[in-house]
Amino acid sequence: MGNEDRISNLPSDLLISIISRLTIQRATTTSILSTRWRYLYCYITDLYFPSHIPYVVTESDYSRVVQHVLDSHRGSRIKEFRLCMSKGLYFERWFEFAVSKKAEIIHLSGKHDIDYEALFLRLPNTNNGFECLKDLYLHKSRMTEQDLKLLLSNCIALESLKLDFPFKLDNVSIVGHTKLKHLSLTCLVADSIVIQDAISLVSLKLYVLIDRFSMQLSNTPKLTQLYFEEHFPLKLFDELLTRMPACMRNQLQIMHLSAKVCCISEMHQKLSWVDLVNIKRLELNLYSMGRSPGPNFLRNFFRLVRLVEACSSLDKLVITFRHWLSSHSEDMLETYVGSRCELSPKYLKISQYSGAPSQLAFTLYLIDNARSLKKVSVVARDEEALACARHDFQHIAFVSFSVM
What we know:
By secondary structure, the chain is α/β, with parallel strands linked by helices. It has eleven helices and 17 strands. The strands form two sheets. A 14-stranded parallel β-sheet has the order 1-2-3-4-5-7-9-11-12-13-14-15-16-17. A three-stranded parallel β-sheet has the order 6-8-10. Pfam families: F-box, LRR_At5g56370.
């Protein structure tokens, strides 16, 4: 009984399901176990090729490994196809393979240093298999407006679409796609975005690189999560909120904003925050711009409080200080105090705290004006910043500290 191989006696479908959960390298090595296992790896349903495969050094070797696995595959269908590499020379061929195998999930991504001339260029000629696709991620593609229209018309079951750096996509039009739940368009240079009758859309993520674009949102009754980042400080975000119908703003429950905090006149316009009565969680990623902030820096910094104040039902507020550039000239900012207001968060989390005077002033202002605050968590950037945080907030009874 102790030497009996019970695993090999399991049905083939169950064994294939087990080895499909292994890495490609481990799955292929099962072929040496016995004749029972020799070809089982050829039917695995999850194909994941990470950016680094052990003992594979060059890009040409990487491509040969991928192609060998695909040529060996005998199954009629796969569930997932995920691949990340530095060059996109064969992305089209591999994408066509995944579509022909009726994959439900296809993620083709590349490193950020990919040459723009070596990218995923066009969609497969075949339409067979697109109807099974539920989750698609393409990184740095040359997808055009016509390509997107064709893709959406064929992918009738698509629930999640993520496009990074679609630098040929001048206009985005998603109309009447009733299955789509999650849409992410990052590093976008499109002139216009139209999203209509996406009745299942739950989350929308936009990262815009240009300083102006038009956006139309209508009939998205399930949209509750909005993630927004722009290259220019808060200009487009302000326009998006003010032009959004009130019924859509009232649906939002989670909002994530990446904002640049400027030291000069880039935020001189008056920000017209509207009421966001049902936001429960607000996350702000704040980037400082300029090494010598000057007196206008913190004034612009405090304008973000208007957004926090607009979220009258807020439970959790998360502030993350990213790429914070501070200098000794920030000392003059410690004395700046914004006008009093009423903020509603019950839980405040400060992440990547470095101890810069502007960070301290802003955090203390939030704490002092949050009428229902019950817990504060400060995550310091390093051990030195942790010591600063313990000193800066030692008078707060309900604060906890940690380091990244």
